[in-house]
């Protein structure tokens, strides 16, 4: 074991405060540090006083700061009190133009102290006799905590004046002007859907919801692979299906060899089609994580790590109901609220769209019109509130195939024949047709995107495109 030296924080803190008191511009460090990043309590008081003066419009100087902190107990034992200590800060820095450099050193020291505290916590937790969830759960929690330190050093300023707000909006306008086909975000590969959304937009939390067997995973995987085929870097967190199962669906989409056929003896042409599909997918930047039982915080940590190491443009999570709760003691509504809030914050922080798949309740099964509505989400906490977009996947064919009319005992044959004919026509119209219902769109239109569903190949496509995978 090495003999660890203490973290020497005072020189950087003194240099930063000295530079601010003697000429440095405060706005050069506001996006880097806050008073909590200083270890010394006296330094925290000085920096907070500088901020208070600046916010009130008063000049920041040795005299104004010393006057504001004249009675501060932290400097009672200093020679000359706050006046004497502040004067000595004048010699602690080389140049006021290096204030941002000193601020980064203060932040670096703060994060090192957090790492030291993290290591002590991890050591103590690992030695507990009653460790909840065992070593695997602790590793997951530690991974999230560590990424929180490394990927979000608490030095990012999110506020902006009106000019900054308008500049950000103008950049979005400019992107839209140069967008191909009017799609300013990440194209889903489905033209009707892109027409409604303009593509998936950075910072958006997009809920893709539906009943079982409607095609939620198919929709998520379709969008993720279409984005990857367009050169975007994606991540697919599958809490339900294994990598092998997802891989079989990807093979089916490109090759036309169904997932069932892939489990049997294949013809040479089918094997060749699978080989071609493997080559086609080979260059795509899509990471698949099939670990089950992750919390939203752990997914956030892994997304941050990928963003830092290899980039990340789109995250898909399949699905909300299988996320583990960060607080197992909370009621389910509060657990779901925390999950969706964490993922929305992740989308904003990483500036990427996140597609979150979600299973809705059974209420639609008891209705004649089984198309989902926002009301079907309202029993699920803050899902609707946190979402920027809510999209329901619906396939009428699924329900019609399971409701073939039977002749009632007192029903005339002619009337039954007419009723059966209408059902048969409706089934024919719905065959291989799906709907993606945009029930909420915070920044745009609602409506229905009609798509083609290929169950054999496990893919959604444009309704007019019958040729298969792109």
How would you describe this protein?
This protein has about 475 residues and is an alpha/beta fold. The chain has two domains: about 10-150, DNAb Helicase, Chain A; about 180-395 and about 430-460, P-loop containing nucleotide triphosphate hydrolases (Rossmann fold, 3-Layer(aba) Sandwich), CATH 3.40.50. The protein contains 16 helices and nine strands. Helix 5 runs antiparallel to helix 6. The two termini are about 55 Å apart.
In short:
The protein has 16 helices and nine strands. The protein is α/β, with parallel strands linked by helices and 470 residues long.
**Main sheet makeup:** 9 strands, mixed
**Count of helices?**
16
H-E string:
HHHHHHHHEHEHHEHEHEHEHHEEE
Low-confidence stretches: 466-470
| CATH fold label of the largest domain | Rossmann fold
- How many DSSP-defined strands? 9
What name goes with the CATH superfamily of the largest domain? Answer: P-loop containing nucleotide triphosphate hydrolases
CA-to-CA gap between the ends? 57 Å
In which order are the strands of the major sheet placed? 3-2-4-5-1-6-7-8-9
Radius of gyration: 29 Å
- Please report the first level of CATH classification, the CATH class of the largest domain: Alpha Beta
Structural class: alpha/beta
Give the DSSP E fraction (strand runs of 2 or more residues): 5-15%
CATH architecture label name of the largest domain = 3-Layer(aba) Sandwich
- List the quaternary state of the chains: single chain
Mean pLDDT: 86
């Amino acid at each position: 074991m090495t003999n660890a030296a203490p973290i020497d924080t005072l020189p950087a803190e003194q240099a930063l405060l000295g530079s601010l008191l003697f000429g440095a511009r405060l706005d050069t460090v506001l996006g880097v540090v806050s008073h909590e990043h200083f270890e010394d309590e006296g330094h925290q008081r000085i920096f907070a006083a500088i901020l208070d003066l600046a916010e009130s419009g008063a000049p920041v100087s040795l005299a104004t700061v010393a006057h504001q902190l004249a009675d501060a107990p932290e400097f009672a034992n200093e020679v000359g009190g706050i006046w004497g200590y502040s004067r000595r800060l004048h010699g602690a820095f080389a140049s006021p133009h290096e204030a941002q450099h000193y601020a980064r050193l203060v932040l670096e020291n703060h994060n090192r102290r957090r790492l030291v505290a993290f290591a002590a916590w991890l050591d103590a937790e690992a030695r507990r006799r009653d460790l909840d969830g065992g070593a695997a759960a602790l590793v997951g929690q530690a991974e999230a905590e560590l990424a929180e330190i490394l990927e979000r050093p608490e030095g990012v300023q999110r506020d902006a004046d009106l000019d900054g707000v308008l500049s950000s909006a103008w950049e979005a306008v400019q992107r839209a002007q140069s967008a191909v086909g009017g799609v300013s975000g990440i194209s889903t590969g489905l033209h009707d859907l892109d027409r409604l959304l303009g593509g998936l937009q950075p910072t958006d939390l997009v809920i893709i919801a539906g009943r079982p067997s409607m095609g939620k995973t198919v929709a998520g995987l379709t969008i993720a692979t279409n984005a990857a085929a367009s050169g975007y870097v994606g991540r697919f967190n599958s809490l339900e299906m294994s990598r092998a199962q997802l891989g079989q669906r990807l093979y089916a989409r490109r090759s036309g060899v169904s997932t069932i056929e892939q489990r049997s003896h294949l013809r040479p042409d089918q094997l060749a089609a699978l080989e071609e599909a493997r080559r086609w997918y080979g260059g795509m930047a899509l990471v698949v994580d099939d670990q089950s039982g992750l919390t939203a915080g752990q997914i956030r940590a892994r997304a941050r790590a990928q963003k830092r190491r290899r980039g990340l443009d789109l995250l898909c999570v399949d699905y909300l109901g299988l996320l583990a709760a960060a607080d197992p003691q909370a009621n389910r509504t509060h657990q779901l609220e925390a999950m969706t809030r964490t993922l929305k914050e992740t989308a904003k922080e990483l500036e990427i769209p996140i597609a979150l798949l979600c299973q809705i309740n059974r209420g639609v099964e008891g209705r004649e019109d089984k198309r989902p509505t926002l009301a079907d989400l309202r029993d699920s906490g803050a899902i609707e509130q946190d979402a920027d977009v809510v999209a329901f996947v619906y396939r009428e064919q699924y329900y019609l195939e399971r409701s073939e009319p039977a002749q009632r005992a007192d029903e005339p044959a002619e009337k039954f024949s007419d009723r059966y004919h209408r059902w048969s026509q409706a089934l024919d119209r719905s065959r291989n047709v799906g709907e993606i219902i945009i029930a909420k769109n915070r920044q745009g239109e609602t409506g229905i995107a009609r798509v083609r569903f290929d169950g054999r190949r496990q893919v959604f496509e444009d309704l007019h495109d019958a040729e298969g995978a792109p």
